[in-house]
Design brief:
Layout: H1 2-38, E1 42-43, H2 46-69, H3 76-100, E2 109-110, H4 128-143, H5 147-173, H6 176-182
Helix pairs in contact: 1-2, 2-4, 2-5, 3-4, 4-5
């Protein structure tokens, strides 16, 4: 029993650290968003972002609640693999954030003039940040055995990401500089074509 309590405390601490990281990411993005919008940038499909926020936020308390209330305790090797997957997703997101620099935002904001980033993970795919977020919202709950939360988050995020990517790419690919630089890259998995 004592080991389960220690495991739960560790999992809750992981989720709390992930929530804190998400808050810091939001504050970082907000600075960029404010500056970009003040300089005449255009926001695309703000409704998608407004729907994504509550889904993303709900993952943290839902994962803890499912873990604690339903007594979810996955096998240690599986939990460890999910923690590694979650941390890898955070690493990919950090790489994307660093590559985009002051262009990284959580809302879809297109600056004028458009500066196309083709370095870092953007050398390989058009949307590495979205891959990272989808893995985050799935792996973090699974690390605590919260498979209901992971499944719901994955389904909802896939639907929202589909809408977001379609509207974002419609706007981006209409710009010749983006189409020329990124048109031959796949959206989510490295390789040629769309």
């Amino acid at each position: 029993m004592h080991e389960l309590e220690a495991t739960s405390i560790g999992y809750i601490a992981l989720v709390a650290a992930a929530a804190l990281a998400a808050i810091l990411e939001r504050l970082h993005a907000l600075r960029h968003e404010t500056r970009l919008l003040q300089s005449g940038a255009e926001e695309v499909a703000p409704w998608v972002y407004r729907l994504m926020v509550p889904v993303y936020i709900a993952v943290f308390p839902a994962a803890i609640a499912e873990h604690v209330v339903l007594g979810r305790h996955p096998p240690a090797p599986f939990a460890a693999a999910m923690v590694v997957l979650f941390l890898s997703a955070k690493g990919l997101k950090l790489w994307a954030i660093r590559s985009l620099g002051d262009l990284w935002t959580m809302r879809v904001i297109l600056p004028r003039p458009l500066r196309v980033v083709t370095a870092g993970p953007y050398r390989h795919v058009r949307h590495p940040n979205y891959v990272a977020v989808l893995v985050e919202v799935t792996a973090l709950p699974l690390a605590g055995g919260a498979w209901i939360t992971a499944s719901a988050a994955a389904v909802l995020f896939l639907a929202l990401l589909r809408a977001r990517v379609l509207t974002e790419e419609r706007a981006l690919l209409a710009r010749p500089e983006y189409a020329a630089a990124m048109g031959d890259r796949r959206r989510f998995v490295p390789g040629g074509g769309r």
